[in-house]
Each structure stands twice: as C-alpha cells, then as structure tokens.
TrEMBL record:
Domain of life, source organism: Bacteria
Single Gene Ontology BP annotation: DNA replication
Domain (AAA+ ATPase) ranges: 99-231
Molecular function (Gene Ontology), one example: ATP binding
SMART domains given in the database record: AAA
Keyword presence, Zinc-finger: no
Homology family: Belongs to the IS21/IS1162 putative ATP-binding protein family.
InterPro entries: AAA+_ATPase (IPR003593), DNAC/IstB-like (IPR028350), IstB (IPR047661), IstB_ATP-bd (IPR002611), P-loop_NTPase (IPR027417)
Keywords of the record: ATP-binding, Nucleotide-binding
Gene3D superfamilies (UniProt xref): P-loop containing nucleotide triphosphate hydrolases
Protein name, as recorded: IS21-like element ISCARN89 family helper ATPase IstB
Keyword Membrane among UniProt keywords: no
Length: 246
C-alpha cells in the first residue's frame, strides 16, 4: 500500500469517502496548478462538502415524493397571467419558510397550481430545506390509518420533521367527521411551527362544503390563513388547452 492509498484509507475511516475516492485526481489538479498546501487542503474540504450537499439534496428530493419533475423554469407565465414571474421569484428567498408562513394557490383545475407548488418545493430542496408532497386524499387516508392504529400523534410528529408540507387538491372531495378532526390536528401542529403549500379549487368562503361542518372549517381556515400568502389563479385549463391544440 503506497502513501496515497494509506491516506485514502485514513480519509475513509474519518468518513471522508468522496475525498478518499477522488484523492488522486485532487492531488493531480493541485500539482498541475502549483497550489499551496493550504489551497490543496481547502480543495479537498470543498470537494467533500459539495458531494455531501449533492447527496443530501438528491435524498431529500427522493423523500419529497413529487409526482412529477415539475420545475419553475417550465411554468408558462404567458398562459397563466393571474400570477407573475416576479411574484413567484419573491418567494424564492424562502423567508416564508423561515417565518413559518404558508402559500395558498386557489383556482380551477388545470391552471398551474400543482406545477407552482412542486416547482417552489423543488427550489426549497435545492436551498437545503426538507419538503414532502401529498395529495389531500393520500394525506387524509394516511391520517385515518394512523388514527385507527392509535398512532396519529406519532404520524403527525413525523410529518412535522419536514420544513414544508405540500397538500395538493384540498377540497376536491368531502371529508368524514374523523378525517376533519385528524386534519385539524395536523394543521394545528404545523401552525407557526412549519410551512404549508396548499392547492385548492375552492376559495375559503366555500370550504365548509367539503368540511361539511363550519365548526371545523373555521379553526382550520384561521390557522392556515393567519400567516399566509394567497394567490388566486384564473383562466382556462392549461392541460385542456394543450389537448385541444394538439
């Protein structure tokens, strides 16, 4: 075992695996560029940090469970004129996450609500935040199952480990009494502690329709909108328009 191999082995013992794997390459670059010892040490540290960050982002993107790889770069602001690129861009400093605020996208089906929610979630992951995507139906079923097992609190605690929870398509289907209670427990746990990104086809004046109980709808709405940015999206369905033009 030569000196480089011995050094790489020591790096692996220190869990500097990427630095160990690319040590020969990093040494060659240092020699070619006549770097100082300090610059070489800094390059090795930077390489390890970059690789760890990339791996963490990749892992967090997989855990987010986005249904599709939607990106803000692909959002058609020419079609959806009720929200501007500047409005969306102002959200990308992620002060809304740091301040535990929510984003609410309201509008009819097909106008880009989910695309925006996923796109912002993707950017949040790139910035180092943990994001989870769930449709409202999947989330309600998850909470119902947890409640039946006596694990509702445990499941909600697991969800609050994410910095942002995206709840897609809230309001498309009515909820049972137990589902409304479970959702309230979740929203209450996120209130002023974590951020929500919600897409819905109903404005708040009609939320009683799918909660079927104003006594539950009011406290849920109150906690969601108290610290939130609301965006009303209008226009014709982008998907339907694409289909008709093909």
């Amino acid at each position: 075992m030569n000196a480089i191999e011995r050094t790489a082995t020591k790096y692996r013992h220190l869990r500097l695996n990427d630095a160990a794997t690319h040590l020969v390459e990093l040494l060659a670059q240092a020699e070619a560029n006549e770097l100082s010892y300090l610059s070489l040490a800094e390059n090795i540290a930077d390489h390890e940090l970059t690789q760890r960050t990339d791996k963490r982002i990749t892992l967090n993107r997989r855990k987010a469970a986005f249904p599709s790889d939607k990106r803000l770069e692909g959002f058609d602001y020419r079609h959806q004129t009720t929200i501007t690129k500047r409005q969306v861009s102002t959200l990308l400093d992620f002060s809304f996450i740091e301040q535990r605020n929510n984003l609410i996208f309201i509008g009819p089906p097909g106008v880009g609500k989910t695309h925006l929610a996923i796109g912002i979630g993707q950017k949040a992951i790139d910035a180092g935040y943990k994001v989870l995507f769930r449709t409202a139906l999947d989330l309600v079923e998850t909470l119902e199952l947890a409640e039946m097992k006596g694990e509702l609190k445990k499941t909600i605690n697991q969800l609050t480990k994410f910095d942002v929870l995206v709840i897609d398509e809230l309001g498309y289907l009515p909820m049972s009494r137990q589902s409304r209670y479970n959702l309230f427990q979740l929203i209450n746990s996120f209130y002023e502690y974590r951020s929500l990104i919600i897409t819905t086809n109903k404005d708040f004046t009609h939320w009683g329709e799918f909660f079927q109980n104003d006594d539950v709808a009011v406290p849920i709405i109150d906690r969601i909108i108290h610290h939130s940015h609301l965006f009303m999206l209008g226009g014709e369905s982008y998907r339907l328009n694409q289909k008709m033009n093909n």
